[in-house]
């Protein structure tokens, strides 16, 4: 009874906010695995069966998990491994090696990483092997405790599998798949990739040793499920220390999810990417706006977080330009409009800028050409303009052909937000032609 009273006693709002942020950040950042993957239950069952046959019965296997980014390939594998490792026999014997094509960029680095993860550095020592295959076979032999029936099974997970296909002669893939096919030791090779044509990248000898098992995943989450995910990720559990605060918070989350403006914003994100990781980034930005002054989540928080998610880095850079540099960008915009996107050179931009000074500007100083050239070069360093081709490097600076990497909407938005921008320059930037 006393415990219940203690839990029901309201806590200071600052303490509740701290606990709320800690709890939700852990949930959003650590990507807690769901108890079951409803959308990919069949794939879960298939992969679990394959890995059980390796881990328990010593049967070698190879499989590819294929799907776009954010479709749940890694989540599927983690859920399968979590369920697999609940069996004591598997937990005791299964060895895991996790490689990533972005990190292990060649076979030599990959082999060192395999040796490290299997804790075989002391076994290998200073031995020199004639080939990669001999080294790999030695490592696998070192895992044997006695005869083949007591050999410990090894799971190789190759993330970004398609990048391993770019290694010289595909030696790592060949030897791993060869070992799994020849039953020298119980080995499971699981590849994760975004490329549907990944098998076309494999050499004939590698392809012939692959089992051709593929598990396909798709981003088939509906908008209703997407909205439900927002509610479930932001809601507090019943055992939250301050029950009253949790009820108020959950009520505010529910009302936000039902708000029309929030629904439109979330639909925009859903249409842009169904990846839950990008959704979690949006929710983290919402969470960062919570404070003692603003203790509940509001539609305005979601709209502001969405604006930050979609904010354009180049548009933000435009706000930091000098007035002269901004004028040159506007001159390039008008040249693009007049000549329908054809490339321009410094001389053309300078002439357009001078026309503006003569016709319209009362607030702009008439800079010398070397100063204007310096501003033009700074825009190139910021990659707001780029040369049409590398051969133009031999051409004089004034006549080198360039293209603008900004579009009109970015320039107009920057003009509207530029601090203390002179009116005549703003009008010049938003007019249809120079």
The amount of helix comes to: 40-55%
Could you describe the largest sheet, including whether it forms a barrel?
A: 5 strands, parallel
Q: Separation of termini? A: 78 Å
Strand content: 5-15%
Spatial strand arrangement across the major sheet: 2-3-4-1-5
How many beta-strand runs? 7
By helix and strand content, what is the structural category? Answer: alpha/beta
Uncertain ranges: 1-7
Write the H/E string, N to C: HHHEHHEHHHEHHEHEHHHHHHHHHEEHH
Q: Oligomer, anyone?
A: single chain
**Tally of helical segments:** 22
- Shape, principal axes of CA atoms: flat
Q: Residue-averaged pLDDT, rounded?
A: 83
Rounded Rg: 30 Å
Description:
With 434 residues, the protein is an alpha/beta fold. Helix content is 54%, strand content 8%. A 5-stranded parallel β-sheet has the order 2-3-4-1-5, sandwiched between helices. The longest helix has 17 residues, at 13-29. The N and C termini lie far apart (78 Å).
Keywords:
434 residues, alpha/beta, five-stranded parallel β-sheet, two-stranded antiparallel sheet, 22 helices, 7 strands, 8% strand, disordered N terminus
What's this, in brief?
By secondary structure, this protein is of the alpha/beta class.
What is the element layout, followed by pairings?
Blueprint: H1 2-8, H2 13-29, H3 41-55, E1 61-66, H4 73-84, H5 88-93, E2 95-100, H6 107-117, H7 121-124, H8 132-142, E3 154-159, H9 161-164, H10 171-182, E4 187-193, H11 204-207, E5 214-216, H12 223-234, H13 243-258, H14 260-272, H15 276-287, H16 299-309, H17 313-318, H18 323-338, H19 346-359, H20 369-381, E6 385-387, E7 402-404, H21 408-417, H22 423-430
Parallel strand pairs: 1-4, 1-5, 2-3, 3-4
Antiparallel strand pairs: 6-7
Helix pairs in contact: 2-15, 3-4, 6-8, 8-10, 12-13, 12-15, 14-16, 15-16, 18-19, 18-20
